[in-house]
Amino acid sequence: MEIGAAATNAYLKAAQAAVKPQDTQDAGAISGAPFGQMLDAALSKTTEAAATAENAVASATMGNADLVDVVTSIAAAEATLETVVAVRDQVISAYQEVMRMPI
């Protein structure tokens, strides 16, 4: 029963982290940037989230981390990756639409 409650709490924290609005300072830093810099920033955040998840899994393997933290880190990394993939799909779709336009 205790493991089920811990997993439920972990999923709740992950859902809250995925829905949480971004910091205004972070959004302001990106808003006026060229597209390449925005893409680079998004990929950097994805890489950081994946590294955090990997570190949490490694710590849990050694017995130094809580299962809730591990699940939360993995869920955050997954949400970040899904966001990047969705943006990539939209960019490809927009490119294809532009290529279909008559000159």
Give a short overview.
The protein is mainly α. It has helices at residues 2-19, 24-31, 35-61, 67-100. Helix 1 (2-19) runs parallel beside helix 4 (67-100) and helix 3 runs antiparallel to helix 4 (67-100).
Tell me about this structure.
The structure is a single chain. This protein is mostly helical and 103 residues long. 84% of the residues lie in helices and 0% in strands. It has helices at 2-19, 24-31, 35-61, 67-100.
Order of helical and strand elements:
HHHH
Q: What would you report as the Rg, rounded to the nearest angstrom?
A: 18 Å
Q: Tell me, rounded to a whole number, the average pLDDT.
A: 78
- Separate helix tally: 4
Q: How many runs of DSSP E, i.e. beta strands?
A: 0
Helicity, as a percent range: over 70%
Q: How does the major sheet shape up?
A: none
Structural domain count: 1
**What percent strand?**
under 5%
Q: Termini distance?
A: 65 Å
The low-pLDDT segments are none
Name the shape in a single word.
Answer: elongated
Structural class: mainly alpha
